[in-house]
């Protein structure tokens, strides 16, 4: 059977391929320490697990669920946005629960993109924006991010270009992989830019509670709902990556378009997961402070690892990664650098180049590993 042409527009996801190799090394007896992926190793709040367990005997537990999520979940998301970002949302019309924000990237793209439409995507950025765009026959238009501009897009430069075919623009602050943070002033400028050029902005915001004192939503900007959507997720904020819970928020009309696609693709989120998500979203600020105390300690140790590798890095970042520049005298590509560390020291980190050409010359360390293991990494490379 010949697969669809679109399958040739993408490659197997880097981690899908590389982790197979890492598993092979583990099976061959290597004690690999994985500082590559951002899959939280810590537990969700215990009340979340309890809520899931308790829900299993509810009458609703095993039935098909609402396409829009149960009302309590939408209310919990709206309350969470009010409490943490000072954003007022109509839980009925402006909130749509998702099975992880990754699926939202596809749903939003399917709702808005026709073949040949252009999409502004940061270089470097999360590779899924590009692959989804290509799978739909739309065209990625990369805007380069630079350390010198705090990894923020240069909107003045963008305005000099022909943007007439651009449908929407992905932004993601706090930014993965660099950890850069947006400011309110930047978001304000972005909204003005979006209105002027009739471009829908989507801020993908899964990292705003990790090592970040001032969580910011693009929807907090006056008039943002007209031209912006926001994706968010419980994966990192509540250590629930495998539960697959996320959400998209924005103006009712936009949410309706996304729902139209999504309701044709799945039949609702498992009830128990929704019950757990409701509990997670009602967590107090202490949840984040205890989580961030752990990440802070780990990050200090990862800074040591990076320093030992003669890499340089910015300490004023958010999120669960350390983004580090390779030594100035290094002659290897970031992928070669990563492979050398993997084969010689049994330590896996992520090459910056998988996030785009602007990521070449950088590597990304994950904080989803215990202090003990990071100390072991320090010993290995000493
Ligand atoms: C920038 C960014 N967006 C979205 C996602 C997907 O997260 P989720 O688990 O909510 O699908 C990730 C996951 O690593 C990410 O880094």
What keywords describe this structure?
Aspartate/methionine/tyrosine aminotransferase, single chain, Aspartate Aminotransferase, domain 2, 14% strand, alpha/beta, Aspartate Aminotransferase, domain 1, 382 residues, aminotransferase, transaminase activity, PyrdxlP-dep_Trfase_major
Write a concise synopsis of the structure shown.
By secondary structure, the protein is an alpha/beta fold. 40% of the residues lie in helices and 14% in strands.
Architecture overview:
By secondary structure, the chain is α/β, with parallel strands linked by helices. The longest helix has 24 residues, at 285-308. The protein contains 13 helices and 13 strands. The strands form three sheets. It has a seven-stranded mixed sheet with strand order 2-8-7-6-5-3-4, sandwiched between helices. The protein folds into two domains: 5-43 and 286-381, Aspartate Aminotransferase, domain 1 (Alpha-Beta Complex), CATH 3.90.1150.10; 47-283, Aspartate Aminotransferase, domain 2 (3-Layer(aba) Sandwich). Bound molecules: pyridoxal-5'-phosphate. The site of pyridoxal-5'-phosphate has 13 residues, from helix 4. Pyridoxal-5'-phosphate binds at residues 38, 100-102, 126, 172, 176, 204, 206, 233, 235, 241, 246.
Q: What bound compounds does this protein have?
A: pyridoxal-5'-phosphate
Anisotropy-based shape: globular
- Secondary-structure element order, N to C: HEHHEHEHEHEHEHEEHHHEEHEEEH
Q: Proportion of β residues?
A: 5-15%
Content-based structural category: alpha/beta
Runs with pLDDT <50, length 5+?
Answer: none
Largest sheet: 7 strands, mixed
By CATH's scheme, which homologous superfamily of the largest domain applies?
Answer: Type I PLP-dependent aspartate aminotransferase-like (Major domain)
User: What is the CATH topology assignment of the largest domain?
Assistant: Aspartate Aminotransferase, domain 2
Q: Trace the largest sheet across and list its strands.
A: 2-8-7-6-5-3-4
Distance between the termini: 52 Å
Helix proportion range: 25-40%
The tally of domains stands at 2
What's the β-strand tally?
13
- Any guess at the CATH architecture of the largest domain? 3-Layer(aba) Sandwich
Keywords: Aminotransferase, Transferase
GO molecular function: pyridoxal phosphate binding; transaminase activity
Pfam family, one: Aminotran_1_2
Protein name: Aspartate/methionine/tyrosine aminotransferase
